[in-house]
Amino acid sequence: MINRKNSRWSTEIKTLAQHKHICMSVFKARRVIDQIRGRSYEETLMILELMPYRASYPILKLVYSAAANATNNMGLNEAYLFISKAEVNAGTIVKKLRPRARGRSYPIKRPTCHITIVLKDKSKLFRDEPKLKISK
Q1: Cα torsion for 9, 14, 29, 61, to the nearest 10°?
Q2: Is residue 46 predicted with pLDDT exceeding 60?
Q3: Closest C-alpha to 128, from 3, 15, 12
Q4: Which pLDDT does position 130 carry in this prediction?
Q5: Fewer CB within 10 Å, N or C, the chain?
Q6: What is the average per-residue pLDDT within 109-125?
Q7: Is residue 24 classed as helix, strand or coil in its secondary structure?
Q8: Dihedral, CA atoms, 126, 68, 74, 129, nearest 10 degrees?
């Protein structure tokens, strides 16, 4: 996905990957996402592999997928990628009924979440900006 702003000088190239309907609480996923937001791709991989949380594995797979989208679709180098935007949104709540004593039922609510990761390229971020000329 190429996102061009209205300005004639800047073009932003960013790639994104989304994973929807993950059976996980939004708060547990946000705890991991807050640690990787704004970091480089290689640093993110090291952080996610060493985190002891269950939420880190789907996020790690999603970061791998976003980097693969960047290299295959855009031809970007993985060494220059960084996470510009990472967000977790609440999804639908899966509701089930569990049988209990005396013919009653007990509701089970399983929350889901949607995770979006956007990667940008550091090397192409400042290349297209105009240079200011200072005259003396």
Answers
A1: -160
A2: yes
A3: 12
A4: 57
A5: C
A6: 91
A7: coil
A8: -10
Task: Tell me the C-alpha distance between 121 and 62, whole Å.
Answer: 17
Domains with residue ranges and CATH for the chain: 14-121 (3.90.470.10)
Composition of the chain by helix, strand, coil, percent to 5:
35, 40, 30
User: How confident is the model over 31-57, as a mean pLDDT?
Assistant: 95
Contacts 24+ apart (CB under 8 A), 29-33: 29/55, 29/59, 29/88, 29/113, 29/115, 30/88, 31/55, 32/56, 32/59, 33/59, 33/86, 33/87, 33/88, 33/115
DSSP secondary structure code for residue 55 in this structure: T
Residue 70 corresponds to which amino acid?
Answer: A
